[in-house]
Amino acid sequence: MLRFTFERALGMIVTMFFVSIMVFFIMEIPPGDYADRYAFRKYSGTGVNVTEADIQAIRRELGLDKGMIFRYFDWIGGIVLRGDFGQAFAFETSVVKVIGDKAWLTLGILFSTLLITYIVSIPVGIYAAVRRGSAADYGLTIFSYLGLALPNFLLALILLYFANKYFDADIGGLFSPRYADAPWSLGKFWDLITHLWLPAFVLAWSAVAYQIQTVRATMSDELNKLSVTAARARGVPEAKLLIKYPARLAINPVVSTIGFDVNRIFSELPIVAVVLGLTELGELLLRAYLDLDMYVAGAILLLLTAMIVIMNFVSDLLLAWLDPRIKLGA
Amino acid sequence: MATITDGQGPQETPNTQDTRQTKKETRAERKERERLLKYYSASQWTLIWWRFRRHRAAMVAAAVLAIMAVLGIFAEFVAPYGPTTRDTKYIDGAPQIPLFCDHNGCSLRPFIHGVKTERDSVTLRAISVPDPETRVFVNFFVSGERTRLLGLFPTTIHLFGLDDPKAKIHLWGTDDLGRDVFSRTMYATRTSLSIGTLGVLISFVLALVIGGTAGFFGGMIDNVIQRITEIIRVVPIIPLYMGLAAAMPKEWSTTQVYFAMTLILGLFGWPTLARRVRSQLLSIRNEDYVVAATLAGAKPSRIIGQHMLPSFTSFIIVDLVISFPYMILSETALSFVGLGLRPPTVSWGVLLQQAQSIRAIEQTPWLFIPAVFVVVAVLAFTVIGDGLRDAADPYGGK
Known about the structure:
The structure holds 2 protein chains of 2 kinds.
Chain A: H1 2-28, H2 34-43, H3 52-62, H4 68-82, E1 87-88, E2 93-94, H5 95-99, H6 102-130, H7 135-149, H8 152-166, H9 186-223, H10 226-234, H11 238-244, H12 246-256, H13 258-276, H14 281-291, H15 294-322, H16 325-329
Antiparallel strand pairs in A: 1-2
Helix pairs in contact in A: 1-15, 2-3, 6-9, 7-9, 8-9, 8-13, 9-12, 9-13, 13-14, 13-15, 14-15
Chain B: H1 2-5, H2 16-22, H3 27-41, H4 44-53, H5 56-73, H6 75-78, E1 99-102, E2 105-119, E3 126-149, E4 153-162, H7 181-217, H8 219-234, H9 237-246, H10 254-267, H11 271-284, H12 288-295, H13 300-308, H14 313-336, H15 348-353, H16 358-363, H17 369-392
Antiparallel strand pairs in B: 1-2, 2-3, 3-4
Helix pairs in contact in B: 4-17, 5-7, 5-17, 7-8, 7-10, 7-11, 7-14, 12-13, 14-17
């Protein structure tokens, strides 16, 4: 197990290395560089005439005149060695400050979404498999089609609309106005929890639809196994039997796709965040892209991907623990 | 499938002559024999089509999608007005549903009520309200705005419109600039479906080349390609698309943006498909017929194209259909947040941008109609994909 863990951890680092290169390329694609935008932003409207020499000076000061490979190592070195993600020009401060506790809010959203996804999809998927062909099963199939077809941001819009129309409530955002800029306190934390359920529900929507199908399919296969028949013949009570044999295995594909779910959630997060007015990384990422604030964008893209890679790692370990056959195969 | 295994099928078909001589077959038996003969001599594609035809939901979905495609392709004809034509007399106007009856009695021809301008009693702004006393009749194939069908053939004929050339019909209402939502949705359907198709095609070609290389050569090349695929798959896709879309220069023309978007969508859509191609190729790489082709001196491209691909084309087509929704949803999401296509281009995402706030949905809920198209299109592609998967499965029964 130790060796397995070590191998996977190593793989994780290699993947992150290549991801960082890719992210760096994306940061480099927009025309112009940080110095151009910084100069433009700082001096536009002030009447100060900025010459090419001034921009060159900024460039030299920030080390942007070096070759691409050097710039990459400057950037990644700063992140790895000093936790420095560079400067956010639109905010005129460091990227770390801009991101701040938004990273924790994003994690909060992520884990509440995952929680809802698994709490709902595993039991419901098992139920659908046990009651194969029943009205409930068909209903769930239709639901999962809809779950895949109705994009999350549209669902969010619809929910906002209905909440506004029938309850006269504005359910968007992550905090009530009272707590928005307040320092962290128990009250603020509780306020966050009461706001978190909506984005979590919206983001879990398609993940639930997908996982119900996965659980249902595996469970249906497992239910036909001889082990189940044998247990039934021994007179094991039905509920105990379900949990002990097929349900245990039906969880495996869910565990193995945790990273996939995280990926999907992060993929949909920026758009949902815009609709629901969530002040977290996804929304910040979108703003950074629109401002071409590439250091912020790169940092967020890297953080989100790192989270996915870590969750992949966790899922690998969990799976190896749940299903020892995996280790041998790897 | 059952009839094949119980020995009634293929073994008997070759010596039908003998059967007829020894025993007079009944009508039912002959029908059954002919059915089986047809079944066993049908090509793979005919079999898939027969199985697909029996999948009722998939057939309905295919029909819906076909209608949508036709609406999009002939948008100039279907839409009564151009996508940017403004009707300043009817801004933020509600949908006008053609009626047959109103309080003044019934008519055999559908009509809508005319529009008159009034002052809002509170804000004193001029607003347009329906005038229940006037009738404007709706007609088919009326002459209206001059357009070019498919961008080529000049025409003035539109599918429907009003007899009175001065009045305008807005089936699904208008937006804040008085543009017809119905017309815009038709043009958007064309854009969104075509961008999805192009994106899928680009990623399909890439998947064939990349997956084909990895699967055919194996070894070191395969390892490297697998690693790259893994890295692309681990980065959340929409933030990645957003990054590339954000890099598009602001001064690009709408056509440039359109093609750039298809490229972006296509460039990162291939990993799933490439994996499928690779694993299929790996599994049949050592089949005898492939070895024979290699020994005969065929080039790798020929072996892949002529000998290996046909054995799993049906699976690839299923995957292609399934990847459509992702393309369409990605494009919609990107345009929705302002990072994809830009006005004056209309796509479903661009149209939905106007319905982004609760206030907009509350006051002008008809701006949300394009969302129905998105959901229906994605649903249709998913159902067709499921139907095709069942149909393409050679062990799926007849």
